[in-house]
Specification:
By secondary structure, the chain is mainly alpha-helical. 68% of the residues lie in helices and 0% in strands.
Length: 473
């Protein structure tokens, strides 16, 4: 693209228009977010109730995992059984020693809500700091407006992010992972021991965060790796002392091999692309072969990125960490809607970097990914009911009677479009992956170094950068 949009007077006008429109939609969305959270609080969480009951069973019988003759069938993907590592229960079992505490699920949901909002605050600040790394804008007012645009859009996405509402309903640990991964990204250079310990907490609770160790190896961040190893060992020892060698051994020797050999399943909740390529079921060999090919492709591409890109640039390190998160999701044989809450980190950061560099392709891909993940037809039904002149219940009844397509097209084409965009959720990580590649290789990387001071310092990120003699050569 030619001149950067952020440098022009037209950019100032465009920023004002987008900011006003986003602020209006934000003002209309806040009551809906509060109402949605309030409606979820009393809902029974299916997954967390299974985990809590298994914790109660452990205190009664001493067994943390259900025994089965056919372990493969008993521990299928999305099966109603506890199959996570023993350290996962360290955060649940202590509360269940004398039975389920009153309002336990409500407290868990408040914890997830606070973690989610805190992660968004940190991501907005990080995004604005990354914008300041862009070349200085000629129009200072436009330079101030575009970070505000990013902040308002980020908050707007936060209020409509469907994976979060799904994770809040299920009380999914992926919401906590979003905060942990955000803190890891912010502290890898300044507090590597803290970052390594945080990553260890995630990797011991579930298996797949271990993939992020590749970023630490790429950075040659030996202190973070050491902290990860020590923290993982300590957490595992605590789990061994609490749950006993029999339960830890049963998970390691029996359940873990089944999980590592997991194959894609043809269930409607599965957002893996292979499921949509085979809508009638994916138990045959062709689906497994395609899944294996996709995983091999993204792993090979990930290794190529690590080989071609060097650490040291704030922009590149942010993009590589974001790409690691997306790749981690893409190489899973199956993943569910709540897993996409972790994609809020790369989506927002890709959006701000594409906005600051005026990369139309990356911005379009990031915007499509954000829209497809955030939007859901259920969110527009209440708004549509007011314009339709009836209650939400009446609208649901009308949709069920006449069919969603005809109702949406007749009374609210915009709502129909929301439904079409929401159906693209399985493509969201692929769009983000392409956008990250475009930003990494589409233009020369800026050779700006990370600041020596902490991200949490009172001084701004840009001031620290300008004060750092190692910044631009």
């Amino acid at each position: 693209m030619g001149a950067d949009l952020m440098r022009t007077r037209d950019g100032r006008i465009a920023a004002c228009c987008v900011l006003l429109l986003a602020a209006l939609v934000l003002w209309l969305s806040l009551p809906g977010f509060i109402a949605a959270v309030a409606a979820i609080l009393p809902v029974d969480p299916v997954d967390m109730r299974i985990f809590a009951r298994q914790a109660e069973t452990f205190w009664q019988t001493g067994q943390l995992y259900q025994r089965a003759d056919n372990v493969v069938m008993a521990y299928l993907p999305n099966a109603a059984v506890y199959k996570f590592p023993p350290p996962f229960q360290l955060y649940i079992a202590p509360w269940m020693r004398h039975g389920m505490p009153p309002l336990f699920f409500e407290y868990c949901r408040w914890l997830l809500l606070v973690a989610y909002l805190l992660a968004v605050v940190l991501l907005v600040r990080l995004g604005n700091n990354l914008m300041q790394l862009a070349p200085v804008c000629d129009d200072k007012l436009a330079a101030r407006l575009w970070p505000m645009v990013y902040g308002v859009i980020a908050v707007l996405v936060t209020l409509h992010f469907t994976p979060f509402f799904n994770g809040l309903t299920l009380i999914a640990i992926e919401v906590i992972f979003l905060l942990l991964f955000t803190l890891v990204l912010l502290t890898l250079r300044t507090y590597p021991l803290f970052a390594g310990a945080l990553l260890a907490l995630a990797a011991t609770a579930k298996i797949y965060p271990v993939f992020l160790l590749t970023v630490l190896l790429w950075q040659r961040n030996w202190r973070a790796l050491l902290a990860f190893a020590v923290a993982s060992t300590l957490v595992s020892l605590v789990a061994l002392l609490v749950f006993g060698i029999a339960e830890v051994g049963y998970y390691t020797g029996t359940i873990l091999p089944v999980l590592l050999a997991e194959q894609p399943v043809g269930w409607a909740e599965n957002l893996h692309l292979v499921f949509y390529l085979f809508p009638d079921g994916i138990s045959h060999a062709a689906a497994r072969a395609i899944c294996t090919a996709l995983r091999f492709f993204f792993l090979a591409a990930w290794l190529l990125v690590l080989w071609r890109r060097q650490p040291g640039s704030a922009r590149n390190e942010t993009l590589v960490f974001s790409l690691a998160l997306v790749t981690m999701l893409l190489i899973m044989p199956n993943y569910w809607l709540q897993y996409q809450v972790m994609l809020l980190l790369p989506a927002l950061l890709v959006f701000t970097l594409a906005l600051s560099s005026a990369s139309v392709l990356a911005l379009s891909l990031a915007g499509l990914a954000l829209l497809s993940m955030a939007l859901s037809p259920e969110q527009v039904y209440p708004l549509l009911s007011y314009s339709f002149g009836g209650s939400t219940d009446e609208l649901y009844a009308l949709v069920l009677r006449e069919g969603e397509q005809s109702v949406m097209l007749r009374y609210a084409p915009a709502a129909w479009l929301v439904g079409q965009l929401a159906a693209l959720k399985p493509l969201a990580p692929y769009c983000l992956w392409l956008a990250l590649v475009v930003l990494l290789f589409g233009r020369p990387a800026q050779d700006q170094r990370l600041p020596e001071k902490s991200f949490f310092s009172r001084r701004s990120f840009s001031e620290l950068l300008s004060a750092n003699p190692m910044r631009a050569r």
